[in-house]
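Section 5.1 Outputs to date
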Amino acid sequence: MENAKNINDFSKGSIMGNIARIAIPMTLAQIINVLYNVVDRIYIGRLGVDAASAFTGLGVCLPIITAITSFSNLIGVGGATLFSIERGAKNIDEASFIQGNSFTMLLSAGIILTILVYIFKRPLLYLLGASDATFKYADSYISIYLTGSVFVLLSLGLNSFINSQGFGKIGMLTVAIGACINIILDPIFIFAVNLGVSGAALATVISQFISALWTFKFLTSDKAVIRIEKKYMCLNFKRIKKILSLGMSSFMMSITNSLVQIVYNSNLQLYGGDIYVGIMTVINSVREVVQMPIFSFSQSAQPVMGFNYGAKEYERVKKTIRCNSIALISYTILAWAVIFVFPEVFLKIFTTDNEIIQYGVKALHIYFFGFFFMALQFSGQAVFTSLGFAKKAIFFSIFRKVIIVIPLIYILPSIIGVYGIFMSEPISNIIGGSLCFIVMYFSVYKKLR
């Protein structure tokens, strides 16, 4: 136990070494996690005669899935950030209470969300862009997926605490176990047992259950630096407020993504029909793939920043900010170039429908234009979240998606047609990403002494 505490002291050793120790296994975990999330779509896109309708029906469910997982960010990221700060300040007892309270909150949120979404699922699916042709597929998938909502929140939310304790490889295994089971079960349930869309959802629920069980078992074992114990699970209002405050930024980024997906789907259904909702499903899938390293690296830098901030090692905090920003910007420039040159390759991963591929190339080029500005948003958000600047983090989460993207989705198609909907994303990245980074630099980075 004592040796683990010394090894996972982020105030010592190389900054890049500390980040890499978490980032490498976390990136591998995220690669597997992306497969976890998109493998359903890959298989369903090849169902046969109803593939396009089934694929679009699954795309209609994505905002609900995003909204559910956003609560794991609200509690998991918020709790893990506060946990890292307290651990860096050597307040081990308080860190234990934060972890225990976060577990109780994740469990409660999963149960409440399952009940609420199930009650309102029919009007919700039509609001999200379902048509009479795609509703049965969307309803079939989400009805089964909801039975595993608790497991989704526990596996994702608690995994943040594993990474915050410096166990990047264990965090990777948490995701890998569930993902591998999902990948194995998907073709069995979808094709061999002939359950179709329902089979994809069932495979996801089973794999999420096993992943959640693994995560909980590790954090209650002697291998953890700080364990989840029953005496720390009793909720405290002040701790809940702090956890939600620090997690609100990540939550708003996720929940506004869900809101934007709703607006995208409803307007694409209005201006282009099922085919363009299907294209948006592919774009969301491609975005998950290429955005994965950005998320995992910035998430890996957060416990290092938070720990050193709690330990008052401000020069190490600044160096971590620089390393994180340079890495993210470099990667997103490369990713943008690859998507621009090989758009059809990305489209064909998820669908064999010629219409989606034909019209999707232009949509993909427009949507990912200037993608490297997204790195500026993630860099700034990571700093605000890690160091406890909750209000700034929340503002910029809302600013890019709600204040810029959503109005543009309504305005641009009336001027330049359906492709104007896709154009709203790069415009928001350029404006929102730049402002977020500039404010972070002058209001936080320059003042760290």
